[in-house]
Structures are given as C-alpha cells and as structure tokens.
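Cross-posted from the bioinformatics board.
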Amino acid sequence: MASRDELSLFIRDALTAGNSRADITAALTDAGWSKTEIIDALDAWAETAFTPPVPRPVQTVSARDFFIYALTFGVLLVGAINLVIVLQVLVDLLFEEDGYAVFGRIRFGVSVLIVAAPLYLWLTLRERRRLARDPALHRSAIRKWLTYIALLLAAGTLLGDLVATIYALLTGDLTAQFMLKAGIVGLVAGGIFLFYYNAIRQEDAE
Amino acid sequence: MNRVLLIGFCLMVAVAIGAGLWVVGGPGYARMVEQDRQRVSDLGTLADRIACKGQSERKLPESLEDVAPCPGYQDSNQHDPVTNEPYRYTKLNLNSFEVCAELALDPKTPRRILPFKNDLILRGGNIVCIARHEDDTQSD
C-alpha cells in the first residue's frame, strides 16, 4: 500500500512529464485510489501550465501556534467555568438565606476572572490583528483544531444544560432559581459557541 | 456579530466581578469576618475547657487565670487575637458561667454574612457570649 506522500510524488512527476489531469485520474483509479483521494491529491497542485508543478499552500503546524492557542483556549475554559460558578452562586444567594459557605467560591471565582478575562481578551484581539495582517495564519492546523474543540465543548455543555433542564422539569424541580442557573450556563456556552462558529464561517467564506 | 459577543462577554465578566465583590465585601471586611470567626471559635473551645465535663468534683474557676488544663480538650486561646485583651469570663453561680467576646462586626447582621453558631447570646454592642450550665446535658 503506497502512502499519500508517494501519491503526491507520483502526481508531481506525472504533471512534470506533461500528463493531463484526466489521464492521471484514470491511471490512479485503475490503481485503486478512491475519487476523493485523487481529487485531494491533485488539488495540492495549482492548475497552471507552469513547470515544475506549483504546490498549493498546506496547513501548518507550529509550536508557537500551539502555545498561543492552547493558552487562549485554556484561559477561556477556566474563565468560563468560573464565570458560571460566580454567577450561579450569586443567584443562590438571591434565593437562600444562609450562604456564608459559598463566599469563598465567589472570592476564588472573582480572582480567576480578574486574571483570565483580560488575558483572554488581549490574546484574542492580538491574534485577530495578526490574522488580518497575515492570512497565512488561517492555515494553522492547531488553530482550526482547537477552535473545533472549543465548539465541541460548548455544544456539549449546551446539550447537557438542556438535558438538565428537561430532567428538572420532569422531576418538578424547575424553580425560578434553577431556571436562572440553567440560563446562565446556556448564555455562557451559547455565547462561546456562536463566537467560534462565526469565526469559522467567516474564515470559510474568505 | 463577534464584536457584539465580545462586548457582551466583557460586560458579563464585569457584572460577575462587581456583584461578586459587592456581595462578599472587600479585603478589610473579609479580615474582620475571619477575626470574628476566630473569636467565636475561641469562645467555644474556652467554654468546653472551663466546663471540663467528665471530671468529678470539679469547681468552676474564679477567673480565667485559674482555668486548669482539662484532659481531652485542646488548649484554648484566652485572649482576643486582635486586641489581645482577655475574653470576659463571668462565673454566674456554682454551676454556670459565661464567656464573652467583643466582635468587630455587628453580630445581628443576617446569618448569610457571618457564620455564627446558633447558641451565641447576643448582648449590647457587638458583644456575644456563650453560657454553660454544669447540669446541662446538651450544653453545646
């Protein structure tokens, strides 16, 4: 079984030798490559008469990207969790009299937010400026992966929130307090989901 | 669209930080709450030690200086952690006494603010006391 690297090399050699794309496709189909594999492999080379064949840009992986995006999404995750905790505890205090024990959680959550929120904002705005200046950064595979992971986590949280709400409804626990708390989770997770969903759509449109 | 979301995110965090700090109070307030907790906890251990249950023919001490060690009970602070004044010990009669401390914050504020025990006796000012009676089976 030939690897994709060999497929790519074969196509380059075939194009250099002056074969047409239709001939190459036929040859590869005979060899057992699937249609999508052939299209992907051919797309890696620009359709120009220029020889040798011109490669199209590919996704990149860099340690710098990993550092920046892992940091951004880590800060986002921790910050979002603590934002939800602080707001939920505040809601609890609205409804319950004896809440001294949760004061520590508010203090800790606020401490996290004071560190995480400005850092996240700075990282995100800085990255946006860099993307606007250098579109090559759009091809960062790590950026793409972490964006989709953020989407996945946000979607999972939203679904869990929905399930919890329906469960509370069925067990008769759907109080105003519960609805407010579920609403907070929905608002934070939904906001994050929309934010990254829009970013991806905007990128695909470009 | 994303600009709106980003601004909304900033507002939400600002509300959480602002409301959170408003509810829990600043550092000075937190320190006073902690000191008051320490005082109330001191009163509890001090009262246990003075009462020293399980020891036969024990007489209540006349003053804090006379408090003898009580086996099984930990040593207790006899002085206010901040002012270093001794806690007020009053022998009410042969079998009962009370210990009092002056708190930094008004103990009559709602319980959600201060973690005070239920058996505290509130006196005038910010003074709270714990009373014990020797014949009480449930004194704490």
